[in-house]
Amino acid sequence: MSQQSLANAYESPLNVNTAANDRRFATLAEAVEASIVEHPATDRKRTLLVVDAACDLPTEWLRQHNVCVLPITVQVDDWTLIDSHDEFDTSEFFHKDLAARGVRAATVPLSPIETRAYLQSHLEPHIDYVLQLTITASRSKIYLNSLAAMQALTTSHNRVRRELGNRDPFRTWVVDTETGFTGQGVMVAEAIRQLDAGVPAPHVAAAMERLRRQVHTLVVPKDLFYLYTRAREKGDKSLSWLGYNVAQRLDIRPVIHAHAGHTGPLLKVRGHEEALDRTIRLCIDQVKRGLTVPVVCLSYAGDLDDVRALPAFSDLRVACQWHGVQMILSTMSMTGGLNVGADAFSIAFATQSVIA
Asked: Which stretches of 251-330 are DSSP H helices?
């Protein structure tokens, strides 16, 4: 049905004949369905997807999918760096061993005013929706700052649009992913997949609210002394001095589990290599059981070839190919590396199963 026919159908008066009305409404439903099929990516083109630099996804991948990245200021000793999620800069950051000096480093998110200005600079005339997926609010002020920024932006941008004759409402959503690192990456990848499939932006935003409770992020740190000292610096007492000493003496490596806003140890494995192997194989098992969304994200605070050389990584790649799951490997963000130390590894997936 043509656009004009659809308009005429809406404007025509109701017929008292019930059968005729049923046919007319059936025709309208068919027309709406046809319009969705003919223009499957309408909301994709009209939606600005926003993440922060702590999200672990490859730089080129983010650029290809037109994802806007909020930068984070990183202060290490006398250095002030901007984490804009550029993989070249991040690789240099780890190669120069700046992460190892980051025990007393600070990460500073954009203020609400700065966030609003940054988002406004990325808005184009065809953008009707902004969907932002932030790192967990329990670990960063990015969510609250972005929420305040988005409320102000919505009010001002709607006024400007009306003055320009655009009566379509400008809508925004800020979703606390309740995770970080690669877990945030899983949600961004799934939002892109749904938008590309023609799912309306409001439905995608609602889906992200549900999905965040199914995302599991696992982190394997290498330097326990760094992790302990960094945690104490930030007021996190989850790892005691006694626990650190015992773990160091026995070469125990914790596998940290972030899920639904909570963070704690999932496994305790002797040896770093064994911890990496167990963690990846746990993911392989979940892939075989069936994931909620077809994507697995991995990141490493160092040379990615070290990850590619792991036997379990090759097994994961085969499992993902066999089960139709996309596997995305990236360098860990500066922000993430500062929090868990150099050579830390992260992997994330979404499942409704209980993992152990």
From this structure: 272-289, 304-308, 311-322
CA angle 28, 33, 37 (to 5 degrees): 145
Rounded CA gap, 57 and 333, in Å?
A: 9
262-288 burial code (b ≥16 CB/10 A, e <16): ebeebbebeebeebbbbbbebbbebbe
> How far apart (Å, rounded) are the C-alpha atoms in residues 247 and 250?
5
Which of these, 148, 127, 122, 145, lies nearest to 135 by C-alpha position?
Answer: 145
Q: Are 248 and 171 in contact (CB under 8 A)?
A: no
Q: What is the spatial distance between Cα 95 and Cα 84, in angstroms, rounded to a whole number?
A: 17
pTM: predicted TM-score of the whole model, two decimal places: 0.83
Chain centroid to CA 135: how far? Answer: 7
Task: Please say whether the beta carbons of 333 and 297 come within 8 A.
Answer: no
CB 269 within 8 A of CB 252: yes
> CA angle, 309 as apex, 305 and 315 as ends, to 5°?
125
Instruction: Judge residue 315's burial from the number of C-beta atoms within 10 Å of its C-beta, 0-12 exposed, 13-18 middle, 19 or more buried.
Output: middle
Per-residue pLDDT of the chain (356 residues; tens, 9 = 90+): 333 322 232 222 223 333 333 333 333 334 333 333 333 447 889 999 999 999 999 999 999 999 999 999 988 777 788 888 887 787 777 766 655 555 567 789 999 999 999 999 999 888 999 999 999 998 899 999 999 999 999 999 988 888 888 888 899 999 999 999 999 999 999 999 999 999 999 999 999 999 999 999 999 998 766 666 666 666 555 555 445 444 555 567 889 899 998 888 898 888 889 999 999 999 999 999 999 999 999 999 999 999 999 999 999 999 999 999 999 999 999 888 888 888 999 999 999 988 86
